[in-house]
Structures are given as C-alpha cells and as structure tokens.
C-alpha cells in the first residue's frame, strides 16, 4: 500500500512528517490501544494498526479518533477523548501525551496509561452538552477545565468559524458557538442544535445547511386544485392543505373569519429598546444593559441569565447596576413565538423560577433554570403547565 493511502498515526504531527500505520492481523496489544487504552475488546484475527515510529498500536477504528481536539463549539479549551464505562460509571481518559518519545510510550504498561477522572456517583458526563443526547457507547470528548462534553457525532461536525462571502447575505457571517433557539431567516425553523451563523450588524441568523439554498426552484408534486388555506396578505404566497391546517396539533379550534388579525409588527415583539450608544433597556430587567466585548480573564466566571451557559461570545450585555448578563443573541430572543408543539402563541418568561425542580420543559422534560417560553392564553387547558426551555424548542 502506498504511504499516502495508509492511515496516519494520531500521535504524530498532522503536517510535519506524519507517521503512517501498518495493518496487523494478530493482536498483540501489550500496552493497550493508544487511543482507548483497552476499553474496547479486540477479537482474535481482527485487523488492527501499528505505528513503528511511536511503537504504539490501535484498534481498527480507534486510529481515526484524535486524542485531543480544538472544536468550534468550544474554542476556549481543548477537548480530550474519554470513555465512561456504562456498567460501573467510572470515567477514563488516556494520559499519554502526543509529544512523548518512543521510549516513554513503549516502556509503560496499560495500567499506567489510564487516568480515572470521575466516579459513578456523578452524572455530569452522561450527555452531550451540545445536543443533549446520552452517550451511546461510552465514548465522548470532554473539557478537563469545565464540564463541556461532545459526543462523537457532534465532534465530527466542524463548521468553519466564519463565512466571508455567503451566498445568502451581503456581509460576512460568524459561527455562534452555542445552541441558538431562534428561527433561521432562510427556512424559518428553529433547530437549536444545528450550527447557525449570525450577522449581528443586520440581526441575521441562518443555519449552516440553509446558506446555499437555491434562489428559484420548481415543485411538481403539489396539487393546487383542491381546497387549501392561504395567507390573506398580498405579498405572501403561503398556502397549506386544509387537513394539515385543521389538525388538532396545529389549529386551536377557533373560527377567525370575522376577527381582526393580530399584527406581528407591534412593539411587544421587540425584546429591548436602544437608549444610547451600546446601551439598551431590556424588557425582562429593571436596569439598563451595556454591550461589552468578552475578555477571557475578566469574564470567565460570568453566566448568561437566559440560556445559563457561560459568557464566552464575542459580545455580551451586562447590567450597569447589578450582576445580570446576556449573550448578544439571547438578548435578541423574540418576546412572542409560535411553536409547532402548541396551538397558542408563546411568550418569553424571563422571571427566575422559585423552585428549579418544579419547572420542566414540555419538549425535552428537563428542568428549566433559565428563560422559558410559556402559553399566552390564560384559559388554555394545558397552558399553565406548558413551558419550553429556550434551548430546547426546535
């Protein structure tokens, strides 16, 4: 096999003389797999790989997993490949440094290349911080400094930090490295865990997969000769099938033929008013908020009151009087929202819950500790209990 086609050793430098791996059919993992340290069993006659330069071996598949990564979703710290035993709950990560010499690696046994870093009593590493899903096979990347974790599928997604010349917008777009529960300006859908890019100058947000949507298309599968509902505004061509529009999960059962349509242009949709240069009056706080650039030393311990994630974006709002902080994108969350899982319009509730355990997101069933959307109808049968975490309504 040509060296160019051979898999590369994860311990070698990716561009400066990277080492190639040689396939082996006889397992001889005396010191454990250099990636998983023996946490994954290897069967007799199963192929695996060996690096003659580093004198280390890898299970088939483990050679594709990088020990440490710097990911766009968590730029402030590196992430380490880790394993959590599903049965015991004990968590391991390998302590072999990619900069070690050949002799250091080969002279050490498997038991010395493992670090136990968390016990069964703690469940903080049970799920991916980005998508919220449980780790399927025990493998994930985690930050040793904070509690940020990524499952392997989320870690495999590495969107660019910036799009200099996007097809869908006149300005450059920047990746927002947090789940963002706002509608995409291209598709109109809320997909909190899909990478989203922002132009803060224009308050424009777009999903990574929506930036290159075609401008003009022709659809031949829609039959328009049957009954349908259409938008009454002349500039809007939205139509929906009659059965789809009157589905019990979509329609609240009220006839609005003689009702005056609510306007979407009212001021109560806007979450804040600008009262000066970089100064706003947010509807959910009694004091004015000032836009400020993030400083990794000064602002490392600050937390956004809306999404309850650390303040780590390029800009954020902070209260001029007290310790109240908001990500710039969280400060732009709309005060009113139409959600696919509820018949009535939802309103943003920024109040602090008296008992965090008593407020659960109706979408994901997890306790909500930050801002939430709740039903705006007082007489709604399930409105009193329907609440949606701003990070979960997708």
Automatic annotation (TrEMBL):
Domain of life assignment: Eukaryota
Q: Tell me the protein's name.
A: DC1 domain-containing protein
Locate the region Disordered: 1-24
* InterPro entries per record: C1-like_sf, DC1, Vacuole_Formation_Reg
Keyword check for Mitochondrion:
no
Keywords for this entry? Repeat
Q: Which residues form the DC1 domain?
A: 124-155, 167-211, 284-331
User: To which species is this protein native?
Assistant: Capsella rubella
Looking up Pfam families in the UniProt record yields: C1_2 (PF03107)
